[in-house]
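Q: Convert this sequence to structure tokens.
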Amino acid sequence: MRNIKKYMAAACILLSLNGCDYLDYDETTGRTKEEAYAYFDNMNQMVTYVYTFLPADLGRVGNAMIESATDNSVYTWEDNNIYYLTNGIWSALKRVDDGWTFWNGVRSANSFLENFDMEVLKRFEYNDNYDEIVGKASMFPYEVRFLRAFYLFELAKRYGDIPLLTHTYEQDKINSVKKTSFDEVMDFIARECSEIAPELPIDHNNKPTGGWGETGRVTRGAALALKSRALLYAASELHNPVKDPAKWEKAVEAAYEVMKMNVYELPKVTSDPLYSNLGGNEVLKSKQLIFECRNATKTNSFEARNQPMGYEGATGGNTPTQNLVDAYEMKDGTPFSWDNSTHVANMYYDGSGTPTRDPRLYLNVLTNGTTWLKQKVETFEGGKNKVLDGSTKTGYYLRKYMNPSVSLDPVNPNKLEHHYILFRYAEILLNYAEAMNEWKGPDGTTTEYPVSARAALNMVRDCANMKHVEEIGADFTEKVRNERRIELAFEGHRFYDLRRWKIAGRDEVRNVYGVKITKNSDSFTYEKVLVDKLYWNDKMYLFPFPQNEVYMNPDLTQNPGW
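A:
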């Protein structure tokens, strides 16, 4: 099987919104229009170039994950730009992530869509596999429309109202584009996804479902999953302050479209390849995976950036917080409490070494006493993983996406492919649970949507063998939000969930805790300690537009407060 990354360009040209030549036909090779669009391989390279703007490494800011600008994680090195988001010096003059470069993906998509002509390909392409090539090429416009919709979503979730650019612009026109409302952008994305979904295969690797023997490309499920996410954001308080129930109904409908495909399922977390210790391409076997950003280049850089200090090659990095660890229930479904001495004494394991918490904790977080690479992690005071510069401030290290099959040994290194989740089935069920709860309450259903919010939530919990939830009202809403937090930890959701729910300014979110662990002769004592207080201003619910862009285009208008 050929993977889309086989054709990836060696280098990506990053161009600002105002500095692009919007009439280029092929920005990677300089081909003419006829050369670029008359032959399959040339077009495949251009489509692959549009794929290269997919966010790798989950919205990284330098070496920090966007999660480290939330109450879920702390980045150990304070000279990273991630701290602009949390210490009050963020401004329109300080671009903290690469989100603005999604405009390059939008431009490349628009250029392709304007110039693609299947009839040109049919006239010029001569190949023994002509029918197959034409079939593959017929998918290109739908894939590119998805990618454009995805990039527009990424921009809108950061900036709110944005220009809705659906065609290319001359250099002298681009700086007079006007904003389109967030709702209109989300409606456009939803319509695009609805239109292209029936044209896309369920599985590109499966010819009976419309595929052509390739993997890593956009599928029908990906289009519907993007629609689900977009309409969930549109229904949330940040963009729906009047709590219009019709918006929640649309979000329910979108999530249910994915559910009724009956293509995806949630394996038990203990057997899901998503968490396989083999890593690499093994994760692609997960039955819940819908769409991912693939990195076919074998690396060990993610492990180097996040390995516990004290392990060979480690440089420290994104470290989970006590806030996140506290969000994982005890194994019996009881919420963890610092007021319960039994919970505290058996924080992670009991006296016999048996895990005491929701099994997902150990798939996301390396705790004191966890075995990692044949060594026990020591984050107690004076422990080998707590004493070096760059060591954890929280008492924890990252487990999510860390691959124990990778080696940082400089003499005998081992590198593997790393793939990052963009959409998976657990998110769809959580989208549905949230939207259905807001629309009909925990147990309400309709003829069209016979699954209750509670049932969808419990489907996710069943995979971790966790007790079904029994709460009602506001307590149930908190359960839904907490489940999303722990299930999707370090997948780039928490930062934006806090904003769309408009709870980022709460003290329980701003106060970031770690744990101080003291080793006694044969036991440990634990103390919850404050490690940071995140700065907050309500203007931070949206990103500021880069100030130089506002200077060049006054119609762009800066977001409120910036």
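The chain has 18 helices and twelve strands.
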